[in-house]
Amino acid sequence: MYLSLLSALLLGLFPTVDTESFDVSTLESIQIAPSSEAIEISEPLSASGVVIFDARSGQRLYAKQARTQRPMASLTKLMTALLIVENHDLDEMVSIPRNVVDVTGNKAYLEPGKHYTVGDLLSALLINSANDAATTLAQFHSGSVSAFVGEMNNRALQLGMTGTSFRNPAGLDHPAHWSTPQDIAWLTMFSLRYEEIASRLSSSGERIASVEGDNISLYHTHALMHEVSPVLAGKTGTTTDAGQCLMSLVEGVDQQYIVVLFNSNQRYKDMRIILSSLKTEPEPVASQ
Question: Residue 286 domain-assigned?
Answer without folding.
Answer: no
